[in-house]
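WARN  no MSA supplied for this record, continuing single-sequence
INFO  ligand: 3-hydroxybutanoyl-coenzyme A
INFO  echoing inputs
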Amino acid sequence: MGAGIAEVLARGDLAVVGIEVNADALERGRGHLERSTGRAVKRGRLTEEGQREILDRITLSVDFTDLGECDLVIEAVPERLDLKRRVFAELDRVCRDDAVLASNTSSLSVTDIAVTTGRPTKIVGVHFFNPAPVMKLVEVIRTVLTEPEAVERVAALVDGLGKTAVTIGDRAGFVANRLLFGYLNQAATMLESGHATRDDIDTAMKAGAGLPMGPFALMDLIGLDTCLEILEAVHAESRDRRHAPSPALRERVTAGLLGRKSGHGFYVHDGQGSPDEPAEHDAETPAPIVGVLGTGPLADAVAAHCGRAGGQVRTTAAELGDCDLVIECAQDAEAGRALLVAAAESAKEGAVLAVTSATVPVIEQAMATGRPGDVVGLHLPEADGTLAEIAATVVTAPGVADRAAALAGRLGLTTVRCRDRAGFIVDALRFPYLNDAAAMLGAGYAGADAIDAAMTLGCGYPSGPIADLDRLGLDRAVTVLRALYAETRDPAFAPTPLLAEHVTAARPLR
Ligand code: 3HC
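INFO  complex generated
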């Protein structure tokens, strides 16, 4: 991270002094800088001369006194308060009195660091995101002691680097990590409980929620030890069970499986590329005959998708005789059950009967029919998207979920599997994260623009959580959260009052 930040500053035409703890670490830092800028040269994003200029702006040293003339110092040492305090004591000694001292801490309290220095008014947090040269967000953290001028100077410097500064107060996880890590940890818990596999969860979040990486690939990028530290710090403040580090994470850290940096985390990183790409379906196999039952936007979108994929679409119970797959797309559970019961009576033997709701257990709908073994959940997190989550129940007959996945594949959908649990994968992971964002907004820690910027610019999300809530529908968010709460009785899943209030008032968050 230190090397990444040094590169960002040097790319912004600033003279940089990079300090490392010893000569070996200094060489590793130099290697990082050369590889990162070298990659940009190879991609044609930087000339060799440009690379040389950037590297020439960085002086590497193991001597703290070389920082004597710096206007700003950014500390990026490991996340141990005793170590940070020692580093800041040294910086306090060698740096000019008017120099601003910043910590890139992702989990410790900036105030805790500030109070042990002789210049608490000049201590800020500057939190970069991984990979620092790519991600556009920098969170600038002011403590209750920081003078406004120090914050303004750092925010202006960040803007001058072509990044976006979001200035916020000193709370564990700040904005982005506070929202990101509840989700990452919940994904690890989902894996731990056997709800879905690593690959299915990663694929679901990329294909179903449009994220640049799935949670396990991202934890491997961040470093599992860092993830654990952040969760411990956030949990110490929030006391929210969703932040209590999952055993799936802790076990790997104890075993030294730290992610990309150690070559093995949730994935093995052997340079062979990500193994989680969805399998291609056979284009030669004819598209299936599909019954799409129900009225409303979901039914319309599913019928349109099946039609575009070349499938023959039937829309009434009387026409279901030759269907390979019948998809119930009713607008509420009761209507869905009635449609499913009718479909079970008229569909041919061997047809798969699919339930689309992720808020009513599939098993409840299946048991209402005379053929529960043929029923699976088939959830489309985005009605017009390309991901289908397939859930088998405890009574789904062997091979039925495989047939459902094959049929969905022939309709051009990417499929993932999970157990019959509220929210399947995507909704179960995204709505609690969106609820956290609404709670943060409700608590006044950050505004809607800052929250949305944190997730789009810091974590590469296609849109921010407040915009997502308004797009997906606050009533849908509350329905999914209530289903998750009913299933787990975990208070962390209960809809935050701001959401419930906006639903009652029929008003979007913005
Ligand atoms: N260092 C420097 N540059 C890198 C890089 C790295 N490690 N990895 C990728 N890049 C650059 C590439 O050179 C490329 O640049 P170009 O567009 O100028 O040619 C660009 O990033 C895109 O790279 P790729 O095409 O190889 O790969 P992707 O398109 O898959 O993007 C990604 C990779 C940018 C990492 C993207 O997957 C992403 O945005 N992932 C989410 C990352 C994220 O969430 N970060 C925040 C984590 S939380 C955090 O850091 C806080 C801390 O406290 C833990």
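The chain has a mean pLDDT of 95.
INFO  checksum written, moving to next record
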